[in-house]
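Most newcomers find our protein records easier to grasp once they have seen one. To make this concrete, we reproduce a full record directly below:

===
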Amino acid sequence: MTTDPDIKVFLDFSAGAMNVNGLVQNWETEFVEEIENLKVESLRTSFRRGFAKGLSGQISIREYERETGWSFDTPEDLNDHLSALWTRFYGDADPEENVR
């Protein structure tokens, strides 16, 4: 289990919004809107930082799979999944600028 508070926020929201066993049609759009509509700016910021940290390899496959129910064969598969999702959330913004 991670001790990084940003990663924990990212995983907590991911577990609730994109668990593979409960996905609904247009889940990606709904997930993006849920985060955009958070009233607490610090949560939105922490989510984005945790997401960026995940893309930098700071989330293990096992940890992500446990929280979301998704399944990946390699770290590259997880990274591809997260990269596609990042694009849905933040377009072409560089995640490396958010790791701090």
The two ends are 20 Å apart (CA to CA). Residues 15 and 67 are 5 Å apart (CA to CA). The chain has a mean pLDDT of 92.
